[in-house]
Amino acid sequence: MPPSDLVKVAIEWPGAFPKLMEIDQKKPLSAIIKEVCEGWSLGNHENFALQIADATNFYITEKNRNDIKNGSILRLTTSPYHTAVQLHERIQSASMDAKLESLKDLANASRDITFAQEFINLDGISLLTQMVESGTDFGDLLSFTLTAFVELMDHGIVSWDTFSVAFIKKIASYVNKSAMDTAVLQRSLAILESMVLNSQDLYHKVAQEITIGQLIPHLQGTDQDIQTYTVAVINALFLKAPEEKRQEMAHILAQKQLRSIILSNVIRSPTAINDEMAHQLYVLQVLTFNLLEDRMMTKMDPQDQAQRDIIFELRRIAFDVECDPNGGSIEKRKSMYTRDYKKLGFINHVNPAVDFTQIPPGMLALDNMLYFARHQQDAYIRIVLENSSREDKHECPFGRSSIELTKMLCEILKVGELPSENCHDFHPMFFTHDRSFEEFFCICIQLLNKTWKEMRATSEDFNKVMQVVREQIMRALTLKPNSLDQFKSRLQSLSYTEILKIRQSERMNQEDFQSRPILELREKIQPEIMELIKQQRLNRLCDGTCFRKISSRRRQDKFWYCRLSPNHKVLHYGDLEESPQGEVPHDSLQDKLPVADIKAVITGKDCPHMKEKGALKQNKEVLELAFSVLYESDEYLNFIAPDKHEYCVWTDGLNALLGKEMTSDYTKSDMDTLLSMEMKLRLLDLENIQIPEAPPPIPKEPSNYDFVYDCN
Q1: 6-78 and 527-668 share one CATH topology?
Q2: N or C terminus of the chain with fewer C-beta within 10 Å?
Q3: Residue 379's pLDDT is what?
């Protein structure tokens, strides 16, 4: 039988000495449990189960039994069914203390899907909802009831559609009360969010019970978890609202000043924003911008007088002309309009309405132009007049560029796309203005005009200019400016010349190292540098390192030292009384391990000393510094490096001794640094010389070799 089917474990039972035994993974679990029970002379083995003995307490089932590793600690406990029956009874206890304890246990046990299934089969969820509806519990009792409910529902075993209006009303009432226990409020918000997201029917019921006005006060506190859950509920209501209700809801959010409340209480609060909050703000940002989708996908109707009036308005503001319907002949008026529309930079001078039939950006472009003309009139007039008086083909067409720019901004902000599950890319500056998209447009259209002049562009260069503008906007956005003014000043510094410099340096770094001769040179140098790194690692192993001993008792630190012999054949190691000053000689280290006996190097959570129960288990930093050397059949030498650097040196050195690849981050960065230095040194003489793609041809042989001089 291959030994992989046998797992060595320890099994605990309260009040008894732990048992060490081998589990045969081919045997049914029930047979193993029976064997364990008989060892402690316990009858009715079907009433027992095995659990992982750590903070999770997960039950072991036929499905997950292969996760048991050598050296695991298991616990014999009552079976999920019996535990569920007991808890079902205990949470109905008349004694408050007993009830609180059992609800605490239930909240804990419900995280395990095996237990959850059994408890749900006993109609446990109905029992919990009845307890909530009765309204007799509050404080800790209520918060543990709701925690257990959330944990059970998270397994997705029961559909959300089954809940009564009374239950929803009760949960909503906890959110609507001003002074509510934080834990209860947090769970209630989580339940409302799940209800809205998981059921269209419940969305309507929840939307009737809870108003935005009742949610807003929770954003004004200082507890970031509560704020996060509150924004999550608002997002869920927004996301599930039918198309026609969304604009109405956005209107209410604006009335209640949601944006400025989030800005002052969340974004500008002294507490740093955690990932979950950043995700919810990103979702809110996406949903807000998605309200523009309707206008973005609406074509202009050239027959619609109101829409044509907007174009007249743009003309009026720019050229300060009143549209006098009786002035002059029709022909004269037409030629005046055509002249003005040409100055405004529309593609179709005769009927500019046609320009807005392209979707996207549809009518959204016209909305932006009108907003710019009305709210930043001086800038608008300056741009139009500046470009309409030029005759040298260098004019920047305001109409055409506004339409293309609006389309580009919609692409950058992904208008119309649903929010992604795990993105937290929100921009604080969009929370600083009620009309942030239009303001964003106003800044960018002025940037476009400035870049156009810097590039001395003509209409043939239109697409090139748009590419540069896109790059300027993207680069300014990556710095997450806190306000629109900050964004503006960032763009000021990203002039066309600056973009050219950035592109040039990026190209230098890339192109130079992408041509074929250079790549060949890199490949040639790489093995030499790898050898150099390997020698450095082995020299460091020969110097040796002092490691801390692993002990669960945190009294005083004990140390041990390990070093490689100069001939790279043996690892010498031994205990030390205190941290050494300088090097420890080989002869003072009592133990030896021949390198030839080493079978493998194991790192992280696969190390045997990381699987043991204890404080170390929870410590992520320690996990990242742990490695073990496997020798003989099942013997390990376990290490915890003093820091990341030593960890990389030792794992690299040991892998090098075994003839394996050195894969640490430290090797990668050493390789990049040394390779790039070596390449630059070798290419120094080629400064400003174009390296040809193909090697130069070998010249023909000379007709005679009379010119060769023999020195002998």
Answers
A1: no
A2: C
A3: 92
Q: What does each C-alpha distance from 708 to 699, 700, 705 come to in angstroms?
A: 17, 17, 6
Flag whether pLDDT at 443 surpasses 90: yes
State whether CATH 3.10.20.90 applies to domain 6-78: yes
pTM of this structure: 0.69
Where are the domains positioned within the chain? 6-78, 159-272, 305-505, 527-668
| 8 Å CB contact between 437 and 364 | no
Euclidean distance between CA atoms 424 and 401, whole angstroms: 31
pLDDT tens per residue, range 590-647: 788 898 888 888 888 788 877 764 444 446 667 788 899 988 777 888 888 888 889 9
Q: What is the mean pLDDT of the chain?
A: 84
**C-alpha atoms less than 13 angstroms from C-alpha of 227 in its C-beta half-sphere:** 25
CB 141 within 8 A of CB 98: no
Q: Confirm if 444 and 468 have CB atoms less than 8 A apart.
A: no
Which has the closest alpha carbon to 356: 314, 318, 404? Answer: 404
Name the class of domain 527-668.
mainly beta
The residue among 675, 518, 541, 531 whose CA lies nearest residue 598 is 541
Tell me the C-alpha distance between 281 and 228, whole Å. Answer: 9
pLDDT class for 539, splitting at 50, 70, 90? very high
Q: Residue 568 and residue 99: Cα distance in Å, rounded? A: 65
